[in-house]
Amino acid sequence: MARRAGLRPAGLVLVTLMIGGVLVGTTATAASAGPGVSTRTPFSFSGTNPCTGDAFAGSGQLHFLVSDNLSTSGMIQFHIEAGLSGLQAVTTFPVAGKRYVVIDQENQTTTFDSDGAPAHETVEHTLQFVRSGEDGSLLMDDDFYEHFLAHITANANGTVTVQDFTLNATCK
To answer: Is residue 81 one of the residues assigned to a domain?
Structure first.
C-alpha cells in the first residue's frame, strides 16, 4: 500500500540536496573553467516512520562534486552532482533506542549555463529505513521504502520543456 503521510525524512534529504546544490552552484566562480571540486559534509535529519509512527533522528554524509567548463558559445557550464552515504537513525519516541539501518541510493545531477539557461536537473533516490532486530513476527510491515524521481529541463529561453515527478512509498 502506498503512503504519502510522514515523508519528512526523505523530504528533508531532498531539500538538503537542493539547497546545498544551489549554495555550491552560486559559490563556484565563473571566471574560468576548471577541475571539479569535491566536498563532504556531515548532516543530521529527523522524521517519522509512517509505517510504525516511530519518531527518529539520524545522521549521514552529504557529498558534492562541482565542476565547470567553457562551452563553444563562450558560456560557463556548471555541473553539480550530490549524493548521500552512511545514513543511520535511532528512534526517539514512543520507544527510544530502536535502530534503523538506512540503505540508500542517491543521484542528483544539475547542469546549467552561467546565465541560468538552458538547464536540466534530475533527482532520484531510493531509501529503505529497515528497523534492526525485528523479524516481522511481532510487528508486520515496519520497514519504510521510498523511491523518488524528479526531472526538469528548461530551454535557452528559460521555458520549462520537461517536468516529471514520481513517488512511491510503501511499508514492508
So the answer is: yes
